Amino acid sequence: MHRYLLCLLLAATSYSVACNSPHCFKTSVKKLYRKKLLSDDLAVIALNEYLLACPTVAESMHTPSTSTEYSAPLPEQLLFGIFSVNRQYEHCKDLFQQSTFQAAISQLPFPDQQAIAWYGERIKHQLLLLPLEEAESTPYDRLDDVQKKMINVFYHVKDWQFKPEKRSSGNYVLHGEYLPEQRVIMLYKTACKAGNIYEANIEKAALTHRYYFVGAHELGHAMDDLRNALHLATEKSRTQCEIQANIYGLVMTKAVARLFNARVQHYAKASAAMPPGSRMPCDSAFLAGTIQRWKDIELVLDKPLLKQVKMLGEGNLSVAGLQNDNWAAWGCMEAED
């Protein structure tokens, strides 16, 4: 199990080198763990039984089978926890004040009684990034309007699925798609490697951020679907929907990144408070390296976000290289290398 989680950790950080201390200079996390230079809890960055990771790497740890079904951590679990746990939501609430996101929220309906009842059951199973003592599920009547309306979006999506296969449409690779008739979000093998989605360049983000961005982008289509704003009529209207989904997706991915950083900072404080000699030699260097690598991720995601907002504001709704017959459902696509 540890070996499996360590591989996920490498995917989550997109780095194979753990730290640069004299004890472990240019040494992989897996080797440090085997040599007992890195503590178990830090090796897995234990995120309440799950780890942010892309299932493309996790897939390689499973025995191949004839089934196309694959059980992988899906973005829905963590994205839902951002809105259903006040302690997590308050940590990144300011991000959801982004104007395009707010415009969509203002047009979303509040949950009906059936959706509220669903929420009451759903919060019994949470994937949290903040420590358990700091994060508890929040009753519906203590949610604000943004949270309530986003809960309705999650209720609107009937299923999330991951398929460990590559999907292509013409010369384009399909990382994920939203199917409005079924109200299903599909994610594919290449989601972790998404690079430039409708001129939102996320190539500098870690694999995990890319995976969560694709999921959040498709959730953005569900937001527009629920407010009757998915328009296929023209290439311009179609592209506008994709840019809007990019904006929603980048905002939510920034929230995931901020919460992950808060979790790592929690580990750093806990490690610093432990008695000398109770931690492994590479623990401090590993934490310092992780904090350094992830500290600027919000700035990395801000660049494509600002570009997409500018494109939308200027009405620059022509995405180079994409024609109507290239679109697959509401797909997260990019040209193949």
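[next item in queue]
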Amino acid sequence: MQDKFTWARGLADDIKGCPGHLRYYSDIEAYRDCCAIIDELAPAADEVQLTKRGYGAFLGTALDPILRDRDIDGVIITGVMSECCVEDTARQAYQLHYPAVVINDAVATYDPRATATMLEVVEKNFGWVAGTRAVIDWLKAAQGSACFRINASKPTARRLR
């Protein structure tokens, strides 16, 4: 059992990641720090950046108060290590009463079976699962509306009167 937890000793205390570990990315034909944000996803100057302290995005971060301060009452989740980070973020969102949608074609891990299982667990227990196109369509339909409401069957955009 010790082997499963040995990697944790090498993590940076402040971020629980492996900064400085270079990985080769064939799509850009270059090495990058494996904790670095890729150029295409680089945050704009006015976007919030958080340092995750574990698998989920809420525990040990300021995400919950930031969302509440901005009157954001739901989350859309994408990411890697789907059976750990994505699923834990969806669980934490549920426990904090945020409706969560996991985008099924925007999550991944080293084992596609683990992703499939995670998606089933989220759908059955504490969130919704949808594809990128469907979520983009829902968001476009919600633009300018007073509310983006999620119901038990699927996320829908509705204007409140």
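[queue empty]
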